[in-house]
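Sequence only, no structure available. Ideas?
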Amino acid sequence: MATNDIVDEMHCDVIAYGLRSDFRGEPFIGSTYLMTLSDDIQELKTVCTYGDRTTMNMRIQDGTPIFDGDKVMIGGNDSYIPVCREHYKKMRKLHS
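Reply:
I predicted one. Tokens follow.
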């Protein structure tokens, strides 16, 4: 049985919410499958502090961007800020 067979057989809608990528810019495997198998994707748009569309998540510790470490940090919700790709790349160069 394929991942989405039960949804098709039962004619039901599934609504999922989550992030596409981690703080390193790497995709979450579950998000990859959700986007691949979805009939419709609606993106919630947010704006970076600098005014551009947010597409990245930056992990911070004491105000400093962090670009390595475990993929998942349990209880670390306050350790992430949404940023645009340009700002993410600029901070990665500056702090790597």
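The helical segments are 5-10, 29-37, 85-95.
Hope that gets you unstuck.
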